[in-house]
């Protein structure tokens, strides 16, 4: 999923060249939407049956969907394989991993979640380097099959190693609305709204940076490597802010990284569209990867801090959070794609839209932080 820009670039240039940017954006946005939309359902299953019984079937679906992608020739086939099937599969893989990290660790939860979540960033470093080279050497279909093989091996290891600290609760009646009750809390409401608006703009650089870099004079190969560079920054961005949040407070660090993501888009990426610089694009990729990675890794610790210490219910509550931000993920990239279609080859409009959205998300996180722990600048919240 963090390699979405590589696929977007290939589809736009070769496989689905007849489709508009907004149409292609629906593939990625549907993946992200399904990842979060099924959060409450998967979270309840993790609480009831444990992680291993959930991760196994979804691992099979993930590998199967990637294999089916290698056979795709048309837009609707890619949408079903990558957008629907793989998106649904990720909902049963990502959320249990994040849930386990929050359940196993109490004192250094931010660092633990950061380390777990940086796995996707490591994949985001490997796949943008791996896929374009394989496509060039053996073609798109064989390249995707090699990706499926690698995923299958890694998911097999994950299934062997995962375990939960709590015994499964089994099926329980009357608990389905537990996660929804959190929305009555003002800090929770503003936090979720902040995540919604941040998600509106978060994937814009990850989806359009390779295309923008190529149009502004960077070589095609190097343009696709910008995603690997961004994800390399995200590896550090997921661990360091997580560690810092354990000492300075989850909401304090979340406020900083979500706001800085918007600032970087408006004050760094936007000027690069007007005054292109290959070196500047690389630096932006690193910095944005760091800040956006911090946002991703801090979501779960912030939810835990709003869950009143009921860690055995964290799967459902984290699922409720995921469902709320799914709406932001669903609409962000298609809107940005439509803006780009109106501009033609330009990216200014979508950059402004993404940057302002993330700044609004940062402002809402500031509000949530103040409502939860007070407005003192030195308070640990």
From TrEMBL:
Give the principal location in a single coarse category: membrane
One family name in Pfam for this protein? MFS_1
Domain of life the protein comes from: Eukaryota
What UniProt keywords are attached to this protein's entry? Membrane, Transmembrane, Transmembrane helix
**GO CC terms, sorted:** membrane
This protein's record includes keyword Membrane:
yes
Locate the transmembrane regions by residue number: 23-42, 54-71, 77-98, 110-131, 143-164, 185-203, 251-272, 278-304, 316-335, 347-368
Which GO molecular function annotations are given, in alphabetical order?
Answer: transmembrane transporter activity
Cell location: Membrane
Q: How does it sit in the membrane?
A: Multi-pass membrane protein
Q: Does the keyword Transmembrane helix apply?
A: yes
The record ties this protein, via InterPro entries, to: MFS (IPR011701), MFS_dom (IPR020846), MFS_trans_sf (IPR036259), Proton-linked_MCT (IPR050327)
Residues forming the Major facilitator superfamily (MFS) profile domain are 1-381
Q: Which family does it belong to?
A: Belongs to the major facilitator superfamily. Monocarboxylate porter (TC 2.A.1.13) family.
Any idea what this protein is called?
Mfs transporter
